[in-house]
Amino acid sequence: MLDLDIQEPAVFGGIGSVSTKNIFEKDGKLFIGEAAGLQDMLWGFGMRYAIVSGYLAAQSIIGNKSFTRLAQRRFGLKLKAGVVNRFVWEMLSRSSYSLTLGIMKREKDPFRSLYSFHNFNLLQKLVYPLALRYVRNHYPKLSV
Ligand SMILES: Cc1cc2nc3c(=O)[nH]c(=O)nc-3n(C[C@H](O)[C@H](O)[C@H](O)COP(=O)(O)OP(=O)(O)OC[C@H]3O[C@@H](n4cnc5c(N)ncnc54)[C@H](O)[C@@H]3O)c2cc1C
Q: Which pTM does this prediction carry?
């Protein structure tokens, strides 16, 4: 709306920065949030992951620990679970959303299954190779 005098504009953003081959450190620099490819492939959680990875990066500096190791431990399995969840979501139709919510509603502790499906459970481990092939074919620009 305003005629700003932008000097040397540079493209720096994009969409869907999601990865499972995350680069957390390069040339002595730490990468957090979307710059490290941290987003859940189904649910997003981009803000949460950005804040948590920023915290871990700070902890790694304060405690002289490997940020890559801290970040992998925190996000590695969750990101893989996201790949499977995305695959399952796209295999079932959108109408299955209410079905899923219905099943959750009947559960005594819905947080338990939500936690399980966010942390690469056994079922997800079995489906992963198939999900990976699907995601690589359908989202060739993602580094998964
Ligand atoms: C439309 C939309 C809706 C979304 N909804 C949700 C949601 O509901 N919930 C959720 O959790 N997430 C959501 N997200 C995703 C979430 O916003 C991002 O994943 C999150 O903000 C990533 O944080 P970040 O710090 O990694 O990157 P960013 O928030 O992108 O921050 C990077 C910053 O670095 C600056 N920058 C880049 N290059 C340079 C440079 N060379 N020099 C100086 N500064 C630079 C940019 O200007 C920017 O301010 C949404 C995203 C979009 C686009």
A: 0.87
Domain ranges for the chain: 25-138
Question: What confidence category does residue 94 fall into, taking pLDDT thresholds of 50, 70 and 90?
Answer: low
Q: Which residues contact 73 (CB under 8 A, 6 or more apart)?
A: none
Highest-confidence range of 48-57, 82-91, 92-101, 111-120, by mean pLDDT?
48-57
Could you give the count of Cα atoms lying within 13 Å of 2 in the half-sphere of its Cβ? 3
Residue of 11, 12, 56 with the most ligand 1 atoms within 8 Å of its CB, for mutation: 12
44-71: b (≥16 Cβ within 10 Å) or e = ebbeebbebbeebbeebeeeeeebbebb
Band the pLDDT of 67: cuts 50, 70, 90. very high
| Per-residue pLDDT, 141 | 87
Protein residue whose Cα sits closest to atom 51 of ligand 1: 46
Shortest-distance atom of ligand 1 to CA 48: 11
Q: Is 40 in the pocket of ligand 1 (CB under 6 A)?
A: no
